[in-house]
């Protein structure tokens, strides 16, 4: 698994998201943020996440979608339950995954982080395939971005506002964390 100079991972299925922009010129990638997401909530395998990140979520497809379809969000990566890796935004760009956030005294974590969404929820354990893919991705990202030293959960950078990746995420299974 390699990440090219433009920030695309060669083995990821690529789906371009419009929900990104340029990083600040002096922003070195130094943080990886782990999230969880499932759409509809608690359901896996459907197209909801891909549709949300590409602004194509149908508000009539599920009652919950009516409350979120107008959000403009994305993540660099999405790891499905079976370990499939999907990439929406090149790492060279700023994905809109962190929202209001702070890490080690630095605000606006989107400026200097890479976002990885795991298909899941706070209530269910993640799959072995997801941990394998996540660890391979972390290795590849650290090779491409030597300044990428920190790994945190969304709950760590937005405490009180976010809970993911949640209590079922096993941090001991993440290499070099």
Total of DSSP H or I helical runs spanning 4+ residues = 4
Chain oligomer state: single chain
Main sheet specs? 6 strands, mixed
Spatial gap, N to C terminus: 19 Å
Bin the helical content.
10-25%
The spatial strand order of the largest sheet comes to 1-5-4-9-3-10
What percentage of amino acids are in beta strands?
15-25%
What is the H/E string?
A: EEEHHEEEEEEHEH
The secondary structure category is alpha/beta
- Summed over residues and divided by their number, the pLDDT gives a mean of 96
Task: List the main descriptive attributes of the protein structure presented here.
Lysozyme-like, 6-stranded mixed β-sheet, 177 residues, single chain, 18% helix, alpha/beta, two-stranded antiparallel sheet, 10 strands, 4 helices
Fold and architecture overview:
By secondary structure, this protein is α/β, with parallel strands linked by helices. The protein has a single domain (13-45, 72-173), classed as Peptidoglycan recognition protein-like (Lysozyme-like), CATH 3.40.80.10. The protein is 18% helix and 20% strand. It contains 4 helices and 10 strands; from the N terminus they run βββααββββββαβα. It has a 6-stranded mixed sheet. Strand 4 and strand 5 form a beta hairpin. The longest helix is centred in the last third of the chain and has 17 residues, at 128-144. The protein is globular. The model has no long low-confidence stretch (mean pLDDT 96).
